[in-house]
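Hey, resending since the last one bounced:
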Amino acid sequence: MLTIALSKGRLAEQAIELLENAGYDCTAAKDKSRKLILEDEKVGLRFIMAKPSDVPTYVEYGAADLGVVGKDTLLEEGRQLYEVADLGFGRCRMCVAGPVELMNGKLDLIPNKRIASKYPNITRAYFEGVKKESVEIIKLHGSIELAPLIGLADCIVDIVESGRTLKENGLDVIETVADISARVVVNRVSMKMKADEIRPMIDRIKEQVAKL
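The structure tokens again:
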């Protein structure tokens, strides 16, 4: 039996639809109860419905063989996994955003920057690893756009889809850190021990993605 960890919500719904289109019976995963583990022994599939940030953990430690999760979560968690497929849905960007007056390179002129984000590891990796500068990171859990508006931070690092919320608050995208979408990840041991089941599934998933 293969165990698949799914991020609760829209991402899980899209992943289930993709698996069904690939020829897998996911009836068990559509159970509307509050059960967190849904399985069908006849078809050999077990689904774990999890918080997105926990999916990589379940897969790394072998509680799940595979998982579907956003690239943002993978970057932030930094788990030891095989990332085997980009599913193409859930697309958005991880961006540095701030007041419009900081665009066109002006953000780079600010020394000792303070940056607010839900994603401290991604933020640190980008500024210290890519831009080669030390910054102070303030972790927030919601309404990140508030930080530069009230002087808590110079800018933010956050997920941007349409950019509407930024613009309504006088902010704009300054730099793109990474492109984000849903990915399939596999436990390293499972990839070897259950290769006869996992590899065909990956191939069939990729065939469906190619049709999108």
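The domain at 92-180 is CATH 3.40.190.10 (D-Maltodextrin-Binding Protein; domain 2).

Sorry for the duplicate.
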